Amino acid sequence: MADVVLDPKQIRKRYFKSWFVVDLLSSIPLDFIFLIINEGIQPDLYKLSRSLRILKLAKILSLLKLLRLSRLVRYVRQWEEIFNFASAVIRIFNLICMMLLIGHWNGCLQFLVPMLQDFPEDCWVTKNDLVDAHWATQYTWALFKAMSHMLCIGYGKRPPESITDLWLTMVSMISGATCFALFIGHATNLIQSMDTSRRQYQEKFKQVEEYMQYRKLPVHLRTRIQDYYEYRYQGKVFDEDNILEELSIPLREEVINYNCRSLVKAVPFFANANPEFVTDVVTKLNYEVFQPDDFIIREGSFGDKMYFILGGTVDVLTADGEVVTTLQDGAYFGGKK
């Protein structure tokens, strides 16, 4: 991690050793001075002044460091956490912005090279009568030319005629093809990682369907199995046991208490209980799903479990099938005899 220097002396010393001379010379309005003198000036001095301005353009490369700022990365991650439902959209948006930025740089390069050559007669700027056009018009045509090259859909308004335009076109096409390949690869990985839990569920359910076909299960049984998977997993598969096992004990208890908050609130059994007792109980709970007409406990069977109803209803039946009572959310039953 780089250190932030706030000492004016060190900043001044570093600046004097780096860009001070170039900034000083390139800040002198030589163009206006030459226009005032206009005559008697040597052309070599004018070219020298333009060379100093070109040197200053190299400072633009230092802006690339902005892409690696930890603060910018942290802000992007915070956006993804705040808009959790749209984190993939934010990533795709950032990728599109990066592609547009590369297109912007390419468009500036398309116009910069002819400008440094004083707009020769065979350059695309002169051919399109853009030398004296408004800067917005110049930028629009340069960006259009760059995007046409990068997307390999044409050469802009006119095909290249000079050697310089040919080289610029080739460089632009190569950069565009490279960016396109990177964009497709990154977008593919991004789409695949958007909802890994749902993809795992689909793969798991596909195996279940193949198993049911292999065993030639009846249609009504297949329907019940499909309904069970929909109720049990709700379209997502997580290895929750492994995830919780990797957490520390305090963090694991906090997560489980949060996941079971609705159950603890609904069950009167936990209303006035000691919080440590509640935590000890909920950490040992297992989530189970029962479908309509499922028998959970039969009369005379050995009771080794206690059930808390998180959602739904449970009918207590006699041996003749008569409903004695109906248990609802928050109720509990079972236990060892």
Automatic annotation (TrEMBL):
Top-level lineage group: Eukaryota
PROSITE patterns: CNMP_BINDING_3
Matching Gene3D superfamilies: 1.10.287.70, Helix hairpin bin, Jelly Rolls
Chain segments annotated as transmembrane: 19-37, 82-105, 166-191
InterPro entries: cNMP-bd_dom, cNMP-bd_dom_sf, Ion_trans_dom, K/Na_HCN_channel, RmlC-like_jellyroll
Pfam families per the UniProt record, alphabetical: cNMP_binding, Ion_trans
The organism's taxonomic lineage, starting at the top: Eukaryota, Metazoa, Chordata, Cephalochordata, Leptocardii
Record localization: Membrane
Annotated Gene Ontology cellular component terms: membrane
Protein name as it appears in the record: Cyclic nucleotide-binding domain-containing protein
The UniProt record lists the keyword Iron-sulfur: no
Source organism: Branchiostoma floridae
